[in-house]
User: What shape does this take?
Amino acid sequence: MNQLYNSINIIEYEDKYLEDVRDLLTELEEYIVTIDEDHLDHVHPEYHEKMALYDLKEIKENNGKCYLAICDGKAIGLIMGCIFPYDEHDYLDYKCPKRGEITELIITSKVRSSGIGSKLINKMEEYFISEGCEYSFVDIFAYNKNADDFYKHKGYHHRMYSGIKKL
Assistant: This one.
């Protein structure tokens, strides 16, 4: 794996990798479906075609970036993040300095646990710092224990919990 780690290039998103991004996001959503104990997630028939475009538009509109881990001309991992603007509601009850938010992180299952996720998160955090962010936020799907462990290892901690109840 160390040889793989050293052969990875982290680049900013390029349109020629759109299909790889679609595949990675679909792989993540398919994984989420398998661990969703509430059985609320699904992979909509249009997910593969539309989700990457939606996410890339969100990045463009919110001072964001998408970085890709490239190996042998193929994207094998990605991270997306935005710096969302505050609105008046935020200022009324929240005094957090400027923050970045990681919106997606996926490494293809074939190469997980090889350090690529760390490379990607480091790159995104460098971007956030360069933009004056003092904090980085991430939402973690509650049933994704692997992601929770990864982010804790990278220094993230829980700040809020969301509850759900079937009615």
In short: Strands lie at 9-12, 65-71, 74-82, 99-107, 135-138. Residues 18-35 form the longest helix (18 residues). Residues 2-153 form a domain with the Aminopeptidase fold (CATH 3.40.630.30). The radius of gyration is 16 Å.
